[in-house]
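Re: the 152-residue chain
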Amino acid sequence: MVYSLRRRHLFIWIFWAVLIPIGLYGAFSVVGQQEIPLERRELYPVPLSSQDSLIAETKTSEIIWTLWNGKDSTSLEVFAKVIEPLSHPSAFVYVVPNLEAPLSSAEVIGDLGPVGNYSFSIATDWITAQGVCLIVHDPIKSETFHSIELIP
């Protein structure tokens, strides 16, 4: 760099060093401090509408499971609240006719990940006399680590 470019470069960086803090201060003073309201955390998710009703609820060591009536008469909503990190990093949720049924007769309804709420929709055809049967399966290790019956 020649002398004139070095000098211009220096003045541009000094200009930015002064302008950026002034701009940040101005932006934060205009916006002000806003309070972010904290949500009331429910033990299980609230129904989607006033017509929904709780059918069944159960808890395992890591997950709280709830079964709600769906928006129409042909579906049900399964809510899973993962309260502790899962012991298996890869977890798929299957709905099965009964807990003794092979995994080949199951239907995948979703997957579970880190701590949080998960919602799955299933057809009412899966309700049996035993209720709704769910299996949480790790496809990597080929291991089933939760078997759940949601009995109304």
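The CA atoms of residues 23 and 29 lie 10 Å apart.
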